[in-house]
Amino acid sequence: MSFSSSASRTKRVKNARIHWLGDEIICSFGEQGKGLPLGNLTSQWFGNIYLDGLDQYITKTLRVRRYIRYNDDMIVVGECESDVWKWVACICAFVTEQLHLEIPRDKISVARLPTPVDILGVVTDGARQWTRTATRVRAEKRLRKRTRALHPKLLDSQCSYASIGVYV
Description:
The structure is a single chain. By secondary structure, this protein is α+β, with helices and mostly antiparallel strands. The strands form two sheets. Strands 3-4-5 form a three-stranded antiparallel sheet. A two-stranded antiparallel sheet has the order 1-2. The protein contains five helices and five strands. It has helices at residues 7-12, 16-27, 41-61, 81-99, 133-150, and strands spanning 66-70, 73-77, 117-119, 122-124, 129-131. The longest helix has 21 residues, at 41-61.
């Protein structure tokens, strides 16, 4: 699939040079124009353009009032579990039929609050949120490594992160 071949993307992005650049990026990766280089700054941009139709469908057609999406992660919040399952079925059908994508069944979960929900490195129970343990540990390691490079006195065991204003 070409970046410029989709009518919905053509409506939003009218510049021919941007279409050319999009085609170059998409065709430079993956097989037969499928896939994008993850981590590439353009993957977020393309994801937002491509999934805008899904956002519109969820908010305007399904009239879901509480919906969050970041790239391919999303949360749909509803009052009634049966409504949420209906929305999930409609969203899966839309994604398959209109976007030619699949949502793996093992990636779909419906939880009742206050059951903690893990998304984007954060866990929330609806009332509060906290950083996932693995994410926090990884961030602390990176922070220690970078902070030591910036502040040599941290190598001295007498100095703490708090004493130089770095809080983990």
